[in-house]
Design brief:
The protein is an alpha+beta fold. The protein contains two helices and five strands. A hairpin with a 2-residue loop joins strand 2 and strand 3. The longest helix has 14 residues. About 5% of the residues have low confidence.
């Protein structure tokens, strides 16, 4: 597993929502379920920030559908581990890496372990 340094050119602005044709955790055209709303609120929880001891791990896999990027953020809370995660598929690898970088920066990480899945 490599450690990825986030390039200085990546803006710390929050990641953009998925565009049509990309994998999305929320389906357009319908109301979000209670579970989806809960997950979105959980992602903003400050325990998932680097400054609070959270861990960010990412994986990248090149598939027939495109570059599949995923991440998990682990946070220790009251003796238990809380986890949030997301997964998207992009047409090309640089877009997938950029999405991972933006998510890492949004949670206060300037580098993270990146597993290249073969």
């Amino acid at each position: 597993m490599d450690i990825r340094e986030i390039p200085a050119s990546v803006s710390p602005d929050p990641p953009e929502p998925a565009k049509p044709g990309e994998f999305q955790t929320v389906t357009l055209g319908r109301q979000r379920t209670t579970e989806e709303v809960k997950r979105a609120d959980q992602a903003r929880d400050p325990v998932f920030r680097a400054s609070n001891g959270a861990r960010f791990e990412a994986a990248l896999q090149l598939t027939d559908a495109g570059a599949q990027a995923s991440f998990k953020i682990f946070a220790e809370v009251g003796g238990a581990t809380k986890i949030i995660s997301d997964l998207r598929v992009f047409p090309i690898e640089p877009q997938a890496l950029h999405w991972l970088d933006k998510n890492a920066l949004a949670h206060g990480f300037d580098r993270y372990p990146l597993e290249n899945v073969t």
